[in-house]
Amino acid sequence: QVQLVESGGGLVQAGGSLRLSCAASGRTFSMYAMGWFRQAPGKEREFVGAVVWSGGSPYYADSVKGRFTISRDNAKSTVYLQMNSLKPEDTAVYSCAASRKYYSFSSSYQGKEKYDYWGQGTQVTVSS
Q1: Are 30 and 4 in contact (CB under 8 A)?
Q2: For each of the chain's 128 residues, which pLDDT tens digit applies?
Q3: Can you give the C-alpha Rg of the chain in angstroms?
């Protein structure tokens, strides 16, 4: 089993920044990739970005490309989501997820079905 705990959410004004963290524990050696998703009220959960643990560049949804950055600290089994230039439409519960499925590229991890473990989520609210 893998446990995921997100932190770093909060309230920020439009144009501001936040950094989310996702700390993994348990059988972390079984994970190949980490992803970030978000879900706004009344909407489906949507892909934000993903990164493969072994290396390579992260992949982002078009809606956040150029504003959000994913980084990882393998030694700490932690993935970060740096969110800059935040917009009110970025308001959502953000969740991280871990995948035990192997794909060569981060871009292959866009679907929710690719993930095996999920964190509880952290609220991000962007005021206008």
Answers
A1: no
A2: 899 999 999 999 999 999 999 999 998 878 899 999 999 999 999 999 999 988 789 999 999 999 999 999 989 999 999 999 999 999 999 999 999 999 989 999 999 999 999 999 999 999 99
A3: 14
What residues pair up with 71 in beta bridges, in sequence order? 80
Phi-psi region of 88 (alpha: psi -120 to 50; beta: other; left: phi over 0): alpha
Residue from 37, 34, 35 nearest 46 by CA: 37
Any idea which residue has 């892909």 for tokens? 47
How many helices (H) and strands (E) are present in the chain, helices listed first? 0, 11
Answer yes or no: are the C-beta atoms of 91 and 13 closer than 8 Å. Answer: no
Please give the structure tokens belonging to residue 52: 């493969």
Cβ 6 vs Cβ 123: under 8 Å: no
Q: Are 54 and 2 in contact (CB under 8 A)?
A: no
